């Protein structure tokens, strides 16, 4: 069984249709990358998966049960969300990474072990005592990723987390995240507007354009056989 099953989904915002998905399955351990033009509905998909936007029609099932039937807190504890802008508290790197575990009542010893593991995995050990306000953009986003992974979510949602970074920092973080996801086998949905980036990180790519899920497949499949003229036009707009 797929971890996530979406059927006949319609999301509305401000009374307008912003996303339609006829059918989408996401397997456990899969990284699905979502690409499309600005305003296409990519972030709306993440917000719907996080149950922060409720469907006007259709259903999202998580582990065989409709998200609407999950206890809200229980469901939220199964996911982690990494946003475009790092949302860090005015405390040290170590304290920021540990914050979610503290809220969940995880023991001090286990917290220390898990925080140490992910600080090391994201290459920020030397920054552990530095305050968030003293971090560069790339360093802050590494802390955000560590804070998400330390919770050991079943589903990781990433909304263009590197878009504001300079190209070298962006490329290094993308490479590190791709390696972590491959080693960790955690289910993830990663939003980007860059097809090459999507191909590097994801097992499959979902193309969202004009408020609709248009096509799902590998980069090669999508480039070779665009599902419709909207997908074809999006591909033509991308840098070659």
Model description:
By secondary structure, the chain is α/β, with parallel strands linked by helices. Helices cover 38% and strands 25% of the residues. The chain has helices at residues 42-49, 72-76, 93-103, 108-121, 137-149, 167-184, 195-201, 219-224, 229-237; strands at residues 4-13, 16-26, 31-35, 57-62, 65-66, 79-82, 155-159, 187-191, 204-209, 212-217. It is globular, with a radius of gyration of 18 Å. The model has no long low-confidence stretch (mean pLDDT 93).
What is this structure, in a nutshell?
With 240 residues, the chain is α/β, with parallel strands linked by helices.
Order of helices and strands: EEEHEEHEHHHEHEHEEHH
Q: Number of helical runs? A: 9
Helix content class: 25-40%
Which regions have little confidence, pLDDT < 50, spanning 5+ residues? none
- How would a textbook summarize the main sheet? 6 strands, mixed
**Biggest sheet, strands in spatial order?**
6-7-8-3-9-10
How many beta-strand elements? 10
Structural class: alpha/beta
Compute the gyration radius: what is it? Answer: 18 Å
Terminal Cα span: 37 Å
Q: What's the overall average pLDDT, rounded?
A: 93
Sheet-strand content, in percent, reads 25-35%
Large-scale geometry: globular
